[in-house]
Amino acid sequence: MKLENTPQGVVAGSIPLFAGHPAHDLLPIAGVERAVESVWRGGNITRLFDYGDEQGNPQLIEFLVERLNRVELLGISRDNLMIIGGSTWGVDMICDQLTRVGDVVLVDAPSYRDALHIFRDHHLDIRDIPIDAGGVIVEEMERALRSLAAAGRAPKFYYVVPNFQNPTGITMPEARRRAIIELSRRYGFAIVEDDVYSDIRFGDALPPSFTALAAGEDVLRMGSFSKTLAPGLRMGWLIASEERIADFVSSGVLKMGGGANPFTAAIVAEYCRSGAWEAHVQWLRGQYQQRCDIALAALDSAMPPDVSYTRPTGGYFNWLRLPPALEVADLAERARQRKVYFAPGTGFFVNPADGRHHLRLSFSFVPLDDLRAGIETLGHQIREMSA
Q1: Which ranges constitute the DSSP H helices of the chain?
Q2: d(CA 306, CA 321)
Q3: Potential cystine with 193: which of 55, 221, 228, 320 (Cβ 3.0-4.6 Å)?
Q4: What is the secondary structure of 68-128 as a DSSP string?
Q5: Does domain 15-28+278-386 have CATH number 3.90.1150.10?
């Protein structure tokens, strides 16, 4: 059997509009190679092959703390940050430490499907709250919280992707973030802020993070190099209170495992400390904006008027809503026959049927010609189905 050397889930020769990966021509391969060579020449090579600090590579922590304080004025110390193996690693760790079977967690409807998968793995009681163009609807969240309180229950945390949300691409405004923080304090739940797309913004500064607005109180915020450097590195970070970080660092997995990916972390630290990562992020913003503009132009041209879609100002994704008479499963089958693949909306809802008229497209990964061609194919199939 021949194994195709293709990225996760990608069928060779297809147009994978589902893939929320960085495009291969945007990967900083030469820069990372220079970082590897620098680390290799730096002496004491054996440290790369050893267990590392439980909290993570000290040089990478130092870089991230300095950058976050410089860019966002967070005022955090190294005791507020630890290195993790990507955001899903962090979500799983948070569930391990903060929840038990049957505990309630709140999510958006729709929400990041891999997080939903992890919550199901932990047998949590997932309650989804409707969203609109500004993210979660605060009044709906408050209604759900009152109902839970009446039953003697309270959520452990609210999981949210506040900037260029996966799957919709929308960004939550500051006023709504403040309202959610007020609810979290009134009802006693934490906020898990999955912030992996904030560096990929196309225009103005973003609203302050939940971490900044709450001064770090009962907020756990994750970042990742997967979207701005390379997903195969499996490298990210978690910001939380000193007490939370100390609890995570002293957990059995980290005590026995010696920190997250020490070999990779040393290379990423060198790449970041050289100034290469921040320069690369600045360049990436223009590249992804170009891809988003191409996707929107193709959607404007290809889609019939009764198909609606988001117009993100950063991130990787467009979110489409089909007419009520069309089912996304039928469109997926038609598209598959033409080797075009997308992410059906059913995977992003606690109740999969809620997503049967939705789909997510990613403009981040495929070549530009394939991006146009794939969207044109979908538009043609939708028109045929409507007819």
Answers
A1: 29-41, 58-72, 87-98, 113-121, 138-150, 174-187, 210-213, 242-249, 252-257, 262-273, 276-302, 328-337, 368-386
A2: 9
A3: 221
A4: HHHHH-----GGGEEEESSHHHHHHHHHHHH--TT-EEEEEES--HHHHHHHHHTT-EEEE
A5: yes
Options 3.20.20.10, 3.40.50.150, 3.30.750.24, 3.40.640.10; CATH for 33-274 is 3.40.640.10
Q: What is the pTM of this model?
A: 0.95
In sequence order, what are the beta bridge partners of 344?
Answer: 359
Looking at the chain, which residues constitute the CATH 3.90.1150.10 domain(s)? Answer: 15-28+278-386
Distance CA 342, CA 320 (A): 11
| CATH 3.40.640.10 residue window(s) in the chain | 33-274
What 3-state DSSP class applies to 308?
Answer: strand
What average pLDDT does the segment 259-272 reach? Answer: 93
Q: Which of 48, 55, 99, 47 has its CA nearest to residue 254?
A: 55
For the chain, the average pLDDT equals 94
